[in-house]
Input
Amino acid sequence: MALPTGSVLRYEEGDAWLADCATAPDLVRQAWEADNLAPIAAGALWLVAEARLMYSMPALTRIPEGQRGPVLADTQGDKAWWLVPLDAAEELVDLRAVDVKPAGWTLNCPPASRMLLGHLWFNHPDGSGVLTDPAVLAAALGPGGYRFQTGVQA
Output
């Protein structure tokens, strides 16, 4: 079944944006053409906030669609990666449910339109560059939301 034209365009714009986030966009596209995940380093345009998938799924429903940036999930490893602004680490430092990865940390990304090796976009990159506000993410995962038990690491 073919995707509707608007969806295809959105995915193409998301793929273009993701590839342009990498230092070598052509290598990203080559990886996807070979059905491989493409390594994209955080730090140029966004950072990665890592949380357990089981806590991220309910958080997604708490955040209005227009305020959610891309969210990548590893369905086999119980991980979700939220793309957040470069200054997000300061706002999320006290939130036990989130580990903000440093600039240079590599996120292995599938294209926006499909799952690869258990990785898929729960909230697809759409080319707009919208990222999840760390305060909104903290509210969704923090008090009243889902938190790790003391002493449990992701």
